[in-house]
């Protein structure tokens, strides 16, 4: 039996959050429904964040209400605070995610808060989720490089990761938000984080801005990580991270992993259709 590596599909959330054209909820629902038949265990659907900050995802409740949930698939959403958590719960999200930063500059830009203020806000979210039986994932952004503060010290990432673990996050996803990480910097960052958290509870979330995401995935596989975030069609970017375009494409990661003998359990025909759909939503001609 080949070893399994899981791809957590980010397309509907990270892939679309930065799009200029307001994409109708019906198109987002169609994308999620198609992705539901691709073999993913987890799909990130949307974010319950301030619509002033991320107008593209202002229809989070409508999208969550419109999707057809497939058995065995977890439909996750981002929740930066209790207001977001309440929205997520009302929308029957399967899991929620809190998102912190390893640098102060990015924390301010993305959450209008210092790192420690943001972590304080996550405490009631994780407590409520525990009471409600909802799993909480934690993200850390700018794990190697920050567009505002420069290179990120690995110890800063380990410190935030420990805080998220202590709050009860079941998995921590390490974000190379602007895609500037290199295998060496990713490896140094992982070495520090692994002192706090085992590889089974970590995921790699690498944007492909500089075309190095696959190399960074390989560096992470060597450190024992077996979950990677990706977006069909390679869409995406963070609106508060200048230059952060392009999540690594799901189809590219799946083929790369297959080439190394890992199983992802994904139906590549469906992935191809979803990638074409995602690209057309962004107005790109299919290739
Ligand atoms: P703030 O302006 O400091 O918030 O933003 P506030 O508490 O002062 O509230 C301002 C207004 O927003 C109020 O409305 C609130 O009700 C409303 P008003 O009274 O002015 O009409 N509000 C909300 N509305 C809906 N849902 C909510 C919510 N919270 C407040 N949850 C805040 C602070 C955290 C809200 C804001 O900064 C925010 O929403 N940030 C989210 C930014 C974001 O979504 N970024 C992209 C996702 S992270 C990412 O992409 C990185 C990742 O992919 C990993 C990686 O690549 O690194 C995960
Ligand atoms: Mg991201």
TrEMBL record:
GO biological process: ketone body biosynthetic process; L-leucine catabolic process
Superkingdom to which the source organism belongs: Bacteria
Listed PANTHER family: HYDROXYMETHYLGLUTARYL-COA LYASE (PTHR42738:SF7)
One annotated GO molecular function: hydroxymethylglutaryl-CoA lyase activity
Protein name, entry field: Hydroxymethylglutaryl-CoA lyase
Domain Pyruvate carboxyltransferase residue range list: 5-272
Keyword Ion transport applies: no
Family as reported in the entry's similarity comment: Belongs to the HMG-CoA lyase family.
Alphabetic keyword roster: Lyase, Metal-binding
């Amino acid at each position: 039996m080949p070893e399994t590596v899981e791809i957590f599909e980010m397309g509907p959330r990270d892939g679309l959050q930065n799009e200029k054209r307001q994409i109708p909820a019906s198109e987002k629902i169609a994308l999620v429904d198609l992705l539901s038949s691709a073999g993913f265990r987890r799909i990130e659907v949307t974010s319950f964040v301030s619509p002033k900050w991320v107008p593209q995802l202002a229809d989070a409740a409508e999208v969550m209400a419109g999707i057809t949930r497939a058995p065995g698939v977890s439909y996750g959403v981002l929740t930066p605070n209790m207001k977001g958590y309440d929205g997520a719960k009302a929308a029957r999200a399967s899991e929620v995610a809190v998102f912190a930063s390893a640098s102060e500059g990015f924390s301010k830009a993305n959450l209008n808060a210092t790192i420690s203020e943001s972590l304080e806000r996550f405490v009631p979210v994780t407590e409520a989720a525990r009471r409600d039986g909802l799993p909480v994932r934690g993200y850390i952004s700018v794990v190697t490089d920050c567009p505002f503060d420069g290179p990120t010290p690995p110890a800063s990432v380990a410190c935030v990761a420990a805080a998220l673990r202590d709050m009860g996050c079941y998995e921590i996803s390490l974000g190379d938000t602007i895609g500037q990480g290199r295998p060496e910097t990713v490896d140094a960052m992982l070495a520090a984080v692994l002192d706090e958290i085992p590889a089974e509870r970590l995921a790699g979330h690498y944007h492909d801005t500089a075309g190095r995401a696959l190399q960074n995935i390989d560096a992470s596989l060597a450190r024992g990580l077996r979950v990677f975030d990706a977006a069909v069609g390679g869409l995406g970017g963070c609106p508060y991270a200048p230059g952060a375009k392009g999540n690594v494409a799901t189809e590219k990661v799946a083929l790369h992993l297959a080439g190394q003998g890992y199983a992802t359990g994904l139906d590549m025909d469906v992935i191809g259709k979803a990638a074409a759909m995602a690209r057309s939503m962004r107005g790109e001609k299919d290739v």
